[in-house]
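REQUEST ID: PR-0412
SUBMITTED BY: lab tech R.K.
PRIORITY: routine
TASK: structure prediction, single protein chain
INPUT:
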Amino acid sequence: MKKPALIIGSLIILVLVLSVVRIFISNQVATSGVVLGKIQTEAASLKTENTLLAEKLYTKSALTSIDSEAENMGYVTPKSDFVLSGQVPVAYKQ
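STATUS: complete
OUTPUT:
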């Protein structure tokens, strides 16, 4: 009669231990889910910021933007082109 009581007692203890382990693992998974959500939110905001910065870079590096910025700084386009007329001999024949 002692053997069935020992088996039932050990099974009850095993069920209690496994329940505690399950609760502990569920708590860890829930906590890591919250952390994962925060990381995903931060990654999405960084991607958005990266896109905005790339767009600003493209806008600033456009030739029209550079031209208007140069005009604001005082640079002007030359009014006449400088061209050498005729050919200058490089060497004289002897």
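NOTES: Residues 2-62 form one domain.
REVIEWED BY: pending
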